[in-house]
Design brief:
The protein is an alpha/beta fold and 325 residues long. It contains eight helices and 14 strands. Strand 13 (279-288) and strand 14 form a beta hairpin.
């Protein structure tokens, strides 16, 4: 372990599949230039080392009650052997994306070229039209061919944003997967066109979240620019145990997509028995930053099935609402 170099801890994902018996936190530990820090926990490090760096876990419930976790286990995952993983990328190509699609396609190509051998990828492209570019594939040559976008022949620069219906289409591509499943949703706008798919695909964020949870799909939301419904995208990631990324520069698209791929291979897993109480809570991991300081890493989560997107589903949007009870 490097002496006196600052370590940064991030809870990048959660798993409540076995709640209330246990919860898993997925933690990234890096130095100041982004290198993964190894050997802080078994089987690569010792229990004494893990106790030194992973100090304490505190849950704060919606009633502002703090619950200190009495015991937890830390395990390091540093994959030298690929774990079969299936990923869907659902990409917004609506009119507002004009001028950014080149960067998005280049980022997608880099992502494909860096995919581990045991990773399969499916791709969906959407505006108010939804196109499945491919189901789950490993063949990188074929994936690169499917990802190619020709603005002269691929008539996508029109209409609105069928965000929820497109996400549902992406989830369908993961339907029969027995592997670890993730979705990356990239969008720069608000939902406004999924109503055209009523009865065929999801038209509300609530439907997407319920389906993703049932399928055990972690959603990583990539919101580009300042015109997204950030609250919905964040909550979709919170509900499914994924991560929300706010992207302001085209050059950052590649960095974020690479991070999503990188996180599958180098991380720490903390397992503990949580406080039994549904609804939202905040998890605080108190850690030793290796430079003489104790620092907190925080993560908002939602426990149980009584979540509701309606309070921010329609903010600033022109969205169809089904009036039938």
């Amino acid at each position: 372990v490097p002496a006196k170099m600052r370590f940064d801890f991030e809870i990048f994902a959660t798993d409540f599949t076995n709640y209330p018996d246990s919860v898993k936190l997925y933690v990234l530990v890096v130095d100041t230039i982004g290198n993964f820090i190894t050997d802080l926990a078994p089987p690569f490090g010792t229990k004494e080392t893990s106790k030194k760096y992973f100090k304490e876990i505190v849950e704060t419930t919606s009633a502002n009650k703090n619950h200190k976790v009495q015991s937890f286990n830390v395990r390091e995952v540093h994959e030298k052997k690929d774990i079969p993983t299936d990923i869907n990328i659902t990409m917004d190509y609506s009119g507002s994306m004009y001028g950014t699609t080149n960067e998005l396609e280049q980022s997608c190509n880099i992502f494909i070229n860096k995919m581990p051998a045991q990773t399969r990828l499916s791709m969906v492209r959407f505006s108010d039209t939804i196109v499945t570019l491919c189901g789950l594939l490993k063949d990188k040559t074929e994936l690169l061919k499917r990802a190619f976008f020709n603005p002269k022949t691929d008539n996508f620069y029109f209409g609105g944003t069928a965000l929820y219906a497109a996400m549902d289409e992406g989830l369908i591509s993961l339907n029969n997967s027995p592997n670890t499943k993730q979705m990356m949703i990239f969008t720069d706008g608000y939902e406004c066109s999924s109503f055209a798919y009523i009865g065929k695909r999801a038209i509300f964020a609530q439907q997407v979240a319920i389906k993703a949870r049932k399928m055990n799909v972690r959603i990583n939301s990539l919101g580009y620019g300042v015109g997204t419904n950030e609250k919905v995208l964040k909550f979709l990631s919170v509900i499914t145990g994924g991560t929300y990324y706010s992207i302001l520069r085209p050059s950052d698209i590649t960095n974020v997509m690479n991070e999503c791929l990188y996180l599958n291979r180098n991380y720490y897993v903390i397992t503990y028995k949580p406080e039994r109480m549904d609804n939202d809570r905040n998890i605080t991991l108190v850690y030793n930053s290796n430079n003489g300081k104790t620092v907190n890493a925080n993560r908002d989560v939602f426990v149980g099935d009584k979540f509701d997107f309606q309070e921010f589903e329609y903010e600033g949007t022109n969205t169809y609402v089904n009036q039938k009870n």
